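INTERNAL AUDIT FORM
Audit reference: QA-55
Scope: verify that the stored structure record matches its stored sequence.
Auditor: D.O.
Record contents follow.
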Amino acid sequence: MPADFSKLSFLVVDDNSHMLKIVRTILSGFGVTKIFEAASGKEALEILRGENIDIAILDYQMEEMNGIELIKYMRDETRMENPFIPIIMLSAYSEKTRVIEARDTGATEFCAKPVRAIDLYRKIGVIIDRTRPFVRTSVFFGPDRRRHDPDKYKGPERRSDDEATPNTA
């Protein structure tokens, strides 16, 4: 049975109006009715300050403030009221280094362009069904980057449970 996304609000950020329309159409097809659009990082921050956003979808490559810079700003608790917003990075530049950079900056998921509805649906589903706890270290704040069962790892690099920050959003 398909998930019900109708109560979720989305922010889509892309400086390409055609891409905004494509993502809006896909989300509408999923039953989403609350879709906010921004053509720049600055515009996105204004929307984030005024609206209750459940999931943000950001383009990687934008003028002025790119997606990585926007994620850094969004994850900064001193600047944002809710740094726990799930973020899907959307990019035509999907080589491994960019995916790792997005993950290490605090993106929750990464989806390659050209975006397919099924891929975006799965990414949203993962965010909803398998929420990862947030982790705070001296160099990182964001969703736990590990996708495996952390209880199975008992090695010397295992973090203690106090290092994970519960998602209170």
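Auditor finding: record pair retrieved intact. Residues 27 and 145 are 26 Å apart (CA to CA).
Action required: none
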